[in-house]
C-alpha cells in the first residue's frame, strides 16, 4: 500500500487585521519525520492549529492522497487521522480517570460506542505495545510522570486510526534520557508508516530525528526540502533572515561603543563625598559616600586619589 500524503496549499489566516499565515504550502508524507521550525511568532503552531481544526476561518486547501478535505473542527481532523500532542499534556488528559480511560477517551466519546471495561484495558495495552511501552493501565493518570503522560497521548492517537501525528515542542519538558526514549518512539511510528510533524527550536534534535525540513518566518514559507544538505547554521540563518556572521559583526560594533565602567570620585579631606559610576553608554548613577555595592567590582579597578580633589578613572 502506498504511503499517505497530506498537502496544505496557499494557507492564509488573519486575526483582526494581523496576517498570521500568508499563502503557506506544506506537505507531509507517511513514514516521514518532518521538522517544522522558525523563530517565535513565525506561524508554526498556527499552521498546525489549522490542520487540527482549531482555526476554522482559514483560506486555502487541504488534501489527503490528492482528495480535498474539509477541516473546521478538531473532530474533523481526528476523523481524518490527524492528531496533535501538544507541549502542555495535562490539558488533554482527564484527572481522576485511569490510564486506560484516558487512552481510549476519543473512542469512548463516539456516539453509540459501548465497551466492557476488560476490553477498554485490552485496547489500551495494545496501543501502548505499539510504542514498546509497558504501563499498568489501571493506574490513575494523576500518578503518572510527564514523560508517561506524553506516551499516553501518543497511545491515544494510535488507538484512533492515526495517520498523521503532530508533536508540538515535545522535548521541551523532558530531560535528555526521556527525550531519547521519545526519539525511539518516533522512529517506531515512522516505521509504521505514520507521518510525523516535529515542531522544535532545538536544531540538533531536528538534525538527529527528521528527514525533511520546513522553515517559516513571519507567517511565510522560507524553505522546504530534505534535511540532509543543510547545516545547523544555515537553518538558523533561514529562521532569522540574516547571516550569523552579520549578526555577530553588528553586535561586536555595538559592544565596542559601550563604556565598560567609568568612575568619577570627588574627594574632600580624604573622605569620598560623591561617587558616580557609568556602566553602559549614556547610563550613570550618583550617590553620596562610597556605596558598598561598588567595592567588589568597580573599586578594585579604579584607584582613589590620596589627597583632596577630584579624580576620574576609566
TrEMBL record:
Source organism, top-level taxon: Bacteria
Gene3D superfamilies linked: P-loop containing nucleotide triphosphate hydrolases
Keywords: ATP-binding, Hydrolase, Nucleotide-binding, Repeat, Transport
Signal peptide as annotated in the record: none
Segments forming domain ABC transporter: 6-243
EC number per UniProt: 3.6.3.17
MF term (GO), any: ATP hydrolysis activity
InterPro entries (alphabetical): AAA+_ATPase, ABC_carbohydrate_import_ATPase, ABC_transporter-like_ATP-bd, P-loop_NTPase
Pfam family, one: ABC_tran
PANTHER family named in the record: CARBOHYDRATE TRANSPORT ATP-BINDING PROTEIN MG119-RELATED, GALACTOFURANOSE TRANSPORTER ATP-BINDING PROTEIN YTFR
Annotated protein name in UniProt: Putative ABC transport system ATPase component
Native source species: Klebsiella pneumoniae
Record gene name: mglA_3
